[in-house]
Amino acid sequence: MIKMNDNPFYLSEEQIKWVNDTYESMSVDEKIGQLFCPIVFTNEESQLRELVETKHIGGMLFREGPAKQLRKSHMILQNASKIPLFTAANLESGGSGSATEGTYFGSEMLVAATGDVEKAYQLGKVSCKEGATVGVNWSFAPVVDLDINYHNPITNVRTFGNKLDTVINMGKAYIRAAKEEGVATAVKHFPGDGVDERDQHLVTSVNSLSCKAWDESYGIIYNEMIEAETLTIMAGHIAMPAYEEYFDGKKCDNVIPATLSKNLLVNLLRKKLGFNGLITSDATPMVGFCSAMDRATAVPTCIENGCDLFLFNKNMEEDFIFMLEGYQNGILSETRLEEAVKRILATKAAMGLIEKQKEGTLVPEKGELKVINCKEHQVWAKECANQGVTLVKDTQDLLPVSPTKHKRILLELMGDFPSNERVSTSFVEKLKLEGFEVTVYVPEGFEVMGDTVTNFKGKYDLILYIGNIETASNKTVARMNWHTMFGLGNNMPWMIHEIPTMFISLGNPYHLLDVPMVKTFINGYCNSEYVIGAIIEKIMGRSEFTGISPIDPYCGREELIY
């Protein structure tokens, strides 16, 4: 049962009446449509209108795009929709999660490394203020997972780390800022990612904690987020056998993701934790969802077993049919359909979307776009980078570097990402401005086998590795792949006793595991221009390292400390 006058809705009698009256006036197709939040890949007005008018969707998400185009497309959709739409974006690290021109504030882990909760508030403020100006009203953030397993390739720097208090305080600060900007938050990924080393995009991953261990970690986090009045929680395609067994009273013999589990969504999240708000699934094209059962069954089961909103589609037309047929044949009950749709409507009422629709302000005026990447947001992002960049170790006393002692640099960029060229160019330009000569490493073949150590030492004064390995939803690991085999050539750090060597990570903070021989190691946590600039200032000795690792960069291995 929904308590519309309680946390997190706090609806007035008039708003509750609107929810009930609206529901009663809707056709079955309109009710089914409200359950869907597709990802949209077109900006064509006719196609956008058709999506709303024929499928009656409850919300949608555009991928990052130009601010003016996003605003225009959101306007078309909202004007075409009888009921205001959820307009979502992945605002995890700044306004750039919506508008491509937006401020790339920094990853959650960079924010956590500052040790300053105000920076988490600023992350929420920048993300949601800039998102709102293009018409976004729902942030798929903050990520409140614990980065417990350093092998996990998808939580990593997207999290506030693995310290309970940090995750709680910074998650709540983000929610507070989002509320001030009129943007709903979807804290994620229930029941908690970061325990398994696998990615729910690729498999149904498993939170393997005992009930007691979960209660004392993720359970506390979600209790705090509920008390902070997050309107929505995103369920992940993550299984949790311990609580399945607890509620069933027998050993769990099937891996069911939370998005399809009544035990996790109803018995744990609704009843035990008392969450009254909206539960959305994570993206349902993910393998963690698709591989759990056949899609015709999974689509209606997702709603029947506790989710209120169905995120993204394999095919919108087909998924709509699956949901409708599931309702007609009893997989999706009348009770759950009513509860889910009313919770969607109550969330929209709590967000003030009904009043905004009447006022014509669901999408702000075009002049509001000036806030995107504004000076204040740039200053905040620069401060965050300066405070967060972390010196993990410098046991060889290499720092600071200077063009006097380390004139000739061999820069080795590790990673295979679209941002590589930008990152490489930025470092080269900044280092050259400091007076260094920079050679960018080019992978060699067998022709270098006859080269001598003496010859190599005569070419360079510093070897600089840049790890540009980002979290990605199609990779099973977030570790380095070397260009050459068994030390052949000059890619692997065989030369640490020949030439001073330094490693800077702009992503995965655990690379020290794979380069334990490197004695100077820096974590930047993201590859923003602000972070790159802060790193240059610090390695030159003009700025102190103040960042504090939100995780264990030594991966529990004592030998990595030295």
From TrEMBL:
Pfam families: Glyco_hydro_3 (PF00933). Its EC number is 3.2.1.52. SUPFAM superfamilies: (Trans)glycosidases. InterPro entries: GH, Glyco_hydro_3_C_sf, Glyco_hydro_3_N, Glyco_hydro_3_N_sf, NagZ_Beta-hexosaminidase. It comes from the Bacteria. GO terms for molecular function: beta-N-acetylhexosaminidase activity. It is an enzyme of class 3 (hydrolase). One of its GO terms (biological process) is carbohydrate metabolic process. Residues 28-345 form the Glycoside hydrolase family 3 N-terminal domain. The keyword Iron does not apply. The keyword Hydrolase applies. Keywords: Glycosidase, Hydrolase. It catalyses: Hydrolysis of terminal non-reducing N-acetyl-D-hexosamine residues in N-acetyl-beta-D-hexosaminides. Belongs to the glycosyl hydrolase 3 family. This is beta-N-acetylhexosaminidase.
